């Protein structure tokens, strides 16, 4: 732009490196000379002008300069008005005075998902409100008994976040203990696309209204927000054989916080999780199950007041800190498992199995399972632990637990996961081979000689080995998929009976089968196998 014979340059790339108010300084630099000239002309001493100059010369010069100055001012004002000024958009959360009420006080409107044939909805409230999911195979009398029990203890079930009361700090509280040489970090917020922005906005409002987070202006620790897909509830889908299989579907988003910097400076809590195979063995062989799930389980545990500042996160709507334990903290699983074991300490491995926020109540008959469920619901109310109506299945004859199906028949693989493995094409990279072996290896206890069969695939994972997916690899790949589809039903061990073990070995692998006999009929408990390194192989030769 040219002004008063001087060319003024404005480089937008240089300006973007400075605060936004720098642009206003450029604008003021242009106006200041004009305003000074206009001020001098408007406040001149007329007597001085008359004495020093002739009237004609004065009149002509004054009128000319005034006219020229006013025209330049008009042009400049018109130019500035015509330009679209950039302003940083201000994202604000709407102010609401609406207070969330518990579902037992004001029943919420819920969108119910389709269920498999063996499940159905029943309602604990009037006018078909407060739904829960129960087995569709119960008799009318059994269903009435179950519904009456759930109505009596419906405070243990949550339908909205307003139903979460929070555990007592005297019972359980999450603490964030730091390493000796830690350094606080403040990370910048990350860009979010419009759909994710809306998800974050709804989540912030929900947590604010529930009192689980609060705004904070200053913190030594600031972590960014991350939005990831979330699987909620269960629905039914058809596989290639047109069989109906229950499947967890991704129908929502989860707002997480990237606490990696904080976790790196946090002292680790080593509270153990239970062994999955042992837990499944205790569950298998029962007639009735109640598969329970905590409602936003982590958010039910309070954070120690002195550590709440460390949970601060940043998003387009500001910075907030958690009053309740958020997802993403490295010690959150250990804290939650310790808390659940503490709550159900006298019931664990007797009438309930606890793995994080997944609880499974079981019994050898309907009456026994109903009585066990009553004890658990009563304990939940006593400790303010709330269950998620959408993820709780009451009195089913089989349960989908940790990727396995448990029932009175025993322990089986999850058909939905097997269908995914079966549909996989031949791997084209080492990464795809490793992924396939990870999926198949999850069910290796169901596959005899797993290590021996998978040996050609495992060799592709070795260092400095050229990736060639040979005919031998294809055969191993197809064999593993076929054995998963036709995998047997594994029986849980009966500790009152003797065990039988059959072993075998080759130059490359060893294998074993653990089993028992009941009424002179043998059955398998566990398949085990292992590929041998060169040194153990040499020992076998001797």
TrEMBL record:
<dbReference type="InterPro" id="IPR000477">
    <property type="entry name" value="RT_dom"/>
</dbReference>
<protein>
    <recommendedName>
        <fullName>Reverse transcriptase domain-containing protein</fullName>
    </recommendedName>
</protein>
<feature type="domain" description="Reverse transcriptase">
    <location>
        <begin position="209"/>
        <end position="406"/>
    </location>
</feature>
<dbReference type="Pfam" id="PF00078">
    <property type="entry name" value="RVT_1"/>
</dbReference>
<dbReference type="InterPro" id="IPR041577">
    <property type="entry name" value="RT_RNaseH_2"/>
</dbReference>
<dbReference type="InterPro" id="IPR043128">
    <property type="entry name" value="Rev_trsase/Diguanyl_cyclase"/>
</dbReference>
<dbReference type="InterPro" id="IPR053134">
    <property type="entry name" value="RNA-dir_DNA_polymerase"/>
</dbReference>
<dbReference type="Pfam" id="PF17919">
    <property type="entry name" value="RT_RNaseH_2"/>
</dbReference>
<dbReference type="InterPro" id="IPR043502">
    <property type="entry name" value="DNA/RNA_pol_sf"/>
</dbReference>
